[in-house]
Amino acid sequence: MHAKVTTLLSAILVVSVPLGAMAQGARVPADNVAAAPSIAPDQAPPPDPYGTFTFSVENDLFGGGTDRYYTNGFQFSWRSPSADLPSPLAWVNDRLEWVLGPGTLRWGASFGQSIYTPEDTYRRNPDPSDRPYAGYLYGAVSLSRTTELTSRVVELQLGVVGPSALGEFVQNNYHDIFNIKNTEGWDYQLKDEPAATLLYEQKRRVPLGSFGGIDAEVIPSATLSLGNVQTYAGVGGTFRIGQGLDSDFGPPRIRPALSGSNWVQPRRGFEWYLFAGVEGRAIARDIFLDGNTWRDSRSVDKRPLVADFQVGAAVVWHGVRVALTQVWRSEEFYGQQGRQKFGSLSVSFRF
Hints:
Elements: H1 2-23, H2 30-35, E1 52-59, E2 69-79, H3 87-95, H4 97-100, E3 104-117, E4 134-146, E5 150-161, H5 167-177, E6 193-204, E7 206-211, E8 214-227, E9 230-243, E10 270-286, H6 287-290, E11 305-317, E12 320-329, E13 340-350
Antiparallel strand pairs: 1-2, 1-13, 2-3, 3-4, 4-5, 5-6, 6-8, 7-8, 8-9, 9-10, 10-11, 11-12, 12-13
């Protein structure tokens, strides 16, 4: 497993170095320029006086019709107007200049929860070979730099895994509202544990051209996450077609995922796009499968490689972005009963 993780980490470094060089205006051999589509010189986007508030919800009932594994997640997020940085974060930003590179600066804050359950949620004593019950409640702060073609994000998540994350409370009260039978095995959930994750992500927009007024592009991405919750390296990419692709880097998702941008900066009154993407992750640590770090708990044997495939659509109208995403996720642990399918809905408002 460690060899596979090391291999993917090396691949990310190989991808990241060219992306960083291109973002800073590195020269490209003439032969490559001749073969490549015409791309405008990279520059910072126009100043943005508006921040973006986003609400995202993900659930396996959306398109999946199930109630298992990664069963629910929600997140509230705020992304600042460009270059509107509180003084405590300014100190951090100065020391991350070499990581974030050039571009328009935004800071962000998020609050969210993710809930995980086994396949059979009616057993009071869950199958020990199935995914353990777990809740994760967290807050996050982030710094990002964007140009017209690149995006880099550093995010720190702090929270708690276990009963204090209120997974049982949220799930069973939701079930009560909709007259759904309660889950019975929460007494065996992961124990309380402080949670910390540091994440770095970078993307580069590669325009493919315009066809009848409809633009097309691909956005390769690389992600590295370190912490006692999830430690993984991921590489992926998104293909998009539509009008107004320069308004964002795709719709947001709840990580781990192939996520776009939590901010949106429209350039016209109405914009839309369709998208499809894939991401592979090499996983060294996943507390929701491996169990608690320092205490005995339920656990399963995780798979070291996991892939997501997603398709969806987004509409931006007068500063409001609505995005729907359907996700197919490969098996995450040995003994899992097939891949998982779930949906994601996000709504973003600028103000």
